[in-house]
Specification:
This protein is of the alpha/beta class. The chain has two domains: 102 residues, Enolase-like, N-terminal domain (Enolase-like, domain 1), CATH 3.30.390.10; 267 residues, TIM Barrel, CATH 3.20.20.120. β10, α10 and β11 form a beta-alpha-beta unit. α2 runs antiparallel to α3. The longest helix is centred in the first third of the chain and has 22 residues. It is globular, with a radius of gyration of 21 Å. Bound molecules: magnesium ion. It comes from Maliponia aquimaris. InterPro entries: D-mannonate_dehydratase-like, DgoD-like, Enolase-like_C_sf, Enolase-like_N, Enolase_C-like, Mandel_Rmase/mucon_lact_enz_CS, Mandelate_racemase_C, Mandelate_racemase_N_dom.
Length: 408
């Protein structure tokens, strides 16, 4: 069996999804997601210029050897661009394997460990009352877990993920259009004075059952993070996400000495070498990698198994930049993983998105149910894809009030 062709598409309804389609001499094809948010053309170029010319003629069933060929063969290893490109190839090869076996992927991993995987939604508010309304909306929709982000009084601009006006919702595409980033202003002192009390009020309002998550988005120093983690303990958080910049694997040691709040980290990691110490030294409770830019199913499954040895559960990244192909790959891992925790989930199910990526996966009552279709269980309509093209965009950058650059 041989790979005969592979194609890369960029675009989608209000998104720059990077979709890989690998075709074989037996008519079976596989799909992968190489989307790297706001840097989408780079994994696409890596695929087109270097990886696909080598892929043609390989046996798609040897997904492990193909992964090793590209990873070890690159010489300059890792990095989100390369790992996103490898990840898309790996997803597509697993998709082909599942279709050849006529089984959904979770069966090839070891079958289902659960019916329906817990997901969390994003509630945001320009102020606390606005946020309470947003949380109520998701609770009424049946969500059992909600990430809560709130505008900070006195902050001169809206901060991470928070709308500027009451009742608005951040649109991750139109708000961040154009190659020159918007500037957001940040003040850790104001944030640390306001947010613990706000989280406690949310807990009071919604009672003990709702799982409440909060994302610090890498903004605090290790000492501030330790103080903040202790201050939010009365809110009984499901997790505190990215309290410190993720590239320092020792930064959480101080927090661990002062608080038992569950910590989630890792949405920017792209390999096991970014998180092995965090996992082995049990400095985190949830690992947040994404199947797309952490090297695909083959590599992320290794991270999940290492995490399982150390009581660390999964909480895969599910930002709107992941296409339904990556979300399907994660859904199969979520159905199987003995150490599954939760899945970040933003509603993708617009009619345009469903037309481009038809699938039978479904959300019901705050749980994601993976379909029993062979492989990833998601398709890609090339005629629909022809309607879309690449639109440049950029994440905001963050400065302190005196102009100093800070962590987005
Ligand atoms: Mg996050």
């Amino acid at each position: 069996m041989k790979i005969t062709n592979a194609k890369v598409f960029i675009g989608g309804p209000g998104k720059n999804y990077v979709t890989l389609k690998i075709e074989t001499d037996q008519g079976v094809y596989g799909l992968g997601d190489a989307t790297l948010n706001n840097r989408e053309t780079l994994p696409a170029a890596y695929l087109r210029d270097y990886l696909i010319p080598n892929l043609i003629g390989m046996d798609p069933r040897n997904s492990e050897d193909i992964w090793q060929f590209f990873y070890r063969g690159a010489y300059f290893r890792r990095g989100p661009i390369a790992m996103a490109a490898f990840g898309a190839i790996d997803m597509a090869l697993w998709d082909i394997k599942g279709k050849l076996a006529n089984m959904p992927l979770y069966q090839l991993f070891g079958g289902k460990s659960r019916e329906g995987a817990l997901v969390y939604a994003h509630a945001t508010g320009a102020d606390l009352e606005d946020l309470m309304d947003s949380i109520s909306y998701y609770v009424e929709q049946g969500y059992k877990a909600v990430r809560v982000q709130c505008g900070i009084p006195g902050m001169p601009t809206a901060s991470y993920a928070v709308p500027e006006k009451k009742g608005d919702v951040r649109n991750y595409i139109t708000d961040y259009a154009g190659i020159r980033p918007k500037v957001e202003v940040w003040d850790s002192d104001r944030y640390m004075r306001f947010m613990p009390g706000a989280l406690a009020e949310i807990r009071d309002r919604f009672g003990p059952e709702l799982k409440i998550l909060h994302d610090v988005h890498h903004r605090l120093t290790p000492r501030e993070a330790a103080v903040f983690a202790r201050a939010v303990e009365p809110a009984d958080l499901y997790w505190l996400e990215d309290p410190t910049p993720a590239d320092d694997q020792d930064a959480l040691r101080l927090l661990r000495q002062h608080s038992t709040v569950p910590v989630a980290i890792g949405e920017v990691f792209n390999s096991v070498w970014d998180c092995n110490r965090l996992i082995e030294q049990e400095l985190i409770d949830f690992i947040r990698v994404a199947v797309s830019y952490a090297g695909g199913i083959t590599h992320v499954k290794r991270i999940v198994d290492l995490a399982g040895l150390h009581h660390v559960r999964t909480g895969f990244h599910g930002a709107p930049s992941h296409s339904p192909i990556c979300m399907a790959a994660q859904a199969h891992l979520n159905a199987w993983a003995p150490n599954f925790g939760i899945q970040e989930y933003l509603v993708l199910g617009t009619p345009e998105c469903d037309a481009l990526f038809p699938s039978a996966h479904r959300m019901e009552n705050g749980l994601f149910h993976v379909s029993d279709a062979p492989g990833l269980g998601v398709d890609f309509d090339e005629r629909e894809a022809a309607r879309y093209s690449y639109t440049p965009g950029s994440h905001p950058v963050v400065r302190l009030e005196d102009g100093t650059m800070w962590n987005y």
